[in-house]
Design a protein that fits this description.
This protein is about 55% helix and about 10% strand. With about 675 residues, the protein is α/β, with parallel strands linked by helices. The radius of gyration is 29 Å and the shape is globular.
């Protein structure tokens, strides 16, 4: 009788363990209390390929650039093994929901519970209140297998960096378990209704794949996290489990397995995080995994490479290895204030992950899955995960227990933590969203006078001041925002990836000015931030990189031409000088971190000299002054509102409230009351 996906993967280990190192042999023997002839060591080897790809991608993201496809391989394997069990049990009238979900609980919950306990416990030591609150939220949703949904809801331009979320990797577990909430019931009903299973699988596969393609075009974040656009990958494995084995020659099987492995290696080596994945691209690793499984255990690659004893061992511990590796790496990022681990540190974290995975597999997972009193143990581990979910909820609702930290005169670590989560590229509550593509067009207020503010997030963060004027009944202008994340209000700036769509912003603004007869246009951006490698500017029929002097000259020449174009349409143009930037303004650097905990940085209250802030923007401000002299555009300077009239600029306002949410973006709570340089245009 098939007991679980691993039990369907059992086999006589005597020929393997006789010559295997004693340490590994004990693990292998412990994993196989039920011995059948159905075991395929090559699938454990494929598991090893998948988990090693993911682990190395996270540890060395600039080297193993496509390792994230390992998750897609896991989906195919899981769909194949679980569906094979379901098909067998349902056709033989042995299937019960209680037995199925009991196996899932014993398979998934033990290692997950241990990992959640460790991650949450260390969070109490190493995280600030707002960070711990977010971790509690992720523990709560992780225990309910909804991590993908909560991460999807948090996604956006100002989303907390992925590397700083220790439970980010549970998104894939959420998708898998959401599939298995629906799949057994659907199969059971289909068999009772004598539905054509092949046709059902094909329809479901094509529907999910079509949704995947549609979302990859319109919203890649939705495509990545939502379950319905990922189910086709599990269904690919399910289809493989349903259709009868194809009679193939030994040579054909070997070529199929070689082709499958080649597809997987190409995906890992050539894919990059910037690609629109999954989309069409996911077909390559999914097809590769299907080919390897289809080829069978006797295919050359499967027999020689994937059935190697060391590879099998990694496959056996793949699940706890997947659970452990990312929290260790993520906490390394957190302790190092966002900097990636050094190569030597990354190697150490991988080694620690392997050790923890083996210990979890040997002393937690196997005893629960294969020991006596399975029903009682199922109830215990289910209760443990439920209790952990409740603990996460408590941590979340209690705002990360800020009382863990002593109050210091003038400094409140809770406010520092809150400031880190205070940025968002979203319209204020009173704004009417006219267009919600990559370029966000909003409108607020009424009146004959019409003002348009356009640029990137460094311009849009002034929105809360406009909202405050509207709330106070002082907004006298019909005010538009035409903005986009990292979108300069300069024509013909060519960027890569999702930011390539920024090229549309200047045209959208001109069209708005012409249609609405806008009298005043305010242009603002992180002017000094557009010199990254890979950015280009078109000028006089050619393209220049923006990280060279000639490229920046062309950038400001295009800006000058654009100002004149807006003026020809009857608009008076204003240019906003750069916002002061300094690492000490960043709430994330107001604390020092270590393995032992969090402390306030000793110089956190010291003001930053104004002269230094001015010099950091000196070159960009000089270029803007030149554009102003040539076109008559009016310069607006936000620095006095941000820093006051003294010689230094404090990182704080009020009672210990940071002004910034990160190194460059102002907090809405500060902007609403203190940024008044736009008032003459709006009041």
């Amino acid at each position: 009788m098939l007991q679980s996906e691993r039990e369907s993967q059992s086999h006589s280990w005597f020929s393997i363990t006789n010559r295997f190192p004693r340490f590994f042999s004990k693990s292998l023997n412990a994993s196989t209390p039920h011995v059948t002839d159905n075991y395929r060591p090559d699938i454990d080897g494929l598991r090893a390929f998948a988990v090693v790809s993911v682990v190395l991608y996270h540890a060395f993201p600039k080297v193993i650039t496509g390792g994230y496809v390992g998750v897609d391989v896991f989906f195919v394997i899981s769909g194949f093994l679980i569906s094979k069990i379901l098909f067998a049990e349902i056709t033989e009238h042995r299937f019960t929901f209680r037995a199925f979900y009991g196996r899932r609980i014993r398979r998934i919950f033990p290692a997950l519970a241990v990992c959640l306990v460790a991650v949450l416990a260390f969070g109490f030591i190493s995280l600030m209140p707002s960070e711990l609150a977010q971790l509690g939220k992720h523990v709560f949703f992780g225990a309910g297998f909804l991590s993908n949904i909560v991460l999807w809801s948090e996604s956006g331009y100002f989303d907390h960096a992925a590397s700083l979320k220790p439970l980010l990797h549970l998104w894939s577990l959420g998708i898998e378990e959401q599939f298995y909430i629906l799949w057994p019931a659907l199969l059971w009903m289909a068999f009772r209704m004598k539905a054509r299973m092949g046709r059902l699988l094909a329809v479901l596969f094509l529907a999910s794949f079509a949704i995947n393609i549609a979302l990859s075009i319109n919203n890649i974040v939705d495509d990545f996290y939502l379950p319905v656009s990922r189910f086709w990958e599990l269904l690919a494995g399910a289809g493989l489990a349903w259709w009868r084995p194809i009679v193939l020659t030994s040579s054909a099987r070997s070529w199929i397995s070689f082709g499958g492995l080649t597809a997987l290696l190409i995906s890992v080596a050539l894919f990059t995080p910037e690609l629109r994945f999954p989309g069409w691209l996911a077909l390559l690793p999914v097809a590769g995994a299907v080919a390897v499984i289809l080829a069978g255990r006797e295919a050359m690659v499967n027999r020689i490479v994937l059935s190697n004893r060391a590879v099998i061992f990694v496959g056996l511990i793949s699940y706890p290895l997947y659970l452990w590796h990312w929290p260790l790496i993520s906490y390394a990022y957190i302790i190092r204030l966002g900097k990636p681990p050094t190569p030597l540190m990354a190697l150490g974290l991988v080694a620690a992950s392997l050790l923890l995975a083996w210990a979890t597999y040997r002393f937690v997972e196997n005893p629960v899955r294969f020991g006596a009193h399975r029903h009682r143990r199922t109830q215990i581990v289910a209760a443990c995960v439920a209790a952990l979910g409740a603990c996460g909820l408590a941590v979340w609702t209690k705002s990360g227990f800020p009382e863990r930290f002593p109050l210091l005169p003038g400094i409140d670590i809770r406010k520092i933590g809150d400031a880190k989560l205070d940025a968002d590229f979203k319209a204020t509550n009173g704004m009417e969203v006219l267009d919600h593509g990559w370029t966000l067009v909003t409108q607020l207020g009424h009146g004959e006078r019409k003002v348009a503010l356009s640029g990137d997030s460094m311009l849009f963060h002034y929105g809360p001041r406009v909202q405050q004027l509207a709330d106070d009944g002082q907004l006298a202008a019909n005010t538009y925002f035409v903005t986009g994340p990292r979108c300069p209000p300069v024509p013909k700036v060519i960027q890569r990836d999702k930011f390539a769509r920024c090229i549309d912003l200047p045209g959208i603004l001109v069209d708005l000015v012409r249609r609405q007869n806008v009298q005043s246009v305010v242009l603002g951006a992180a002017w000094a931030g557009y010199s990254d490698e890979g950015m280009l500017i078109e000028r006089d029929g050619g393209r220049l990189p923006l990280n060279i002097k000639e490229g920046m000259d062309a950038f400001y020449a295009n800006l000058e031409d654009y100002v004149r174009l807006l003026q020809r349409h009857g608009a008076k143009v204003y240019l906003v000088l750069g916002v002061p930037q300094h690492q000490r303004f960043n709430p994330g650097e107001m604390v020092t971190r270590g393995v032992a905990g969090v402390r306030i940085a000793p110089d956190v209250e010291n003001a930053v000299p104004i002269a230094g802030l001015r010099s950091a923007h000196g070159a960009a401000d000089a270029k803007l002054r030149t554009v102003s002299e040539h076109t008559g555009a009016v310069l607006l300077d936000p620095l006095p509102d941000i820093c006051g009239g003294g010689e230094g600029c404090s990182p704080f306002f009020g009672v210990g409230e940071p002004k910034f949410s990160d190194r460059v973006h102002l907090r809405p709570i500060f902007v609403r009351e203190h940024l008044r340089f736009l008032d003459p245009l709006l009041k």
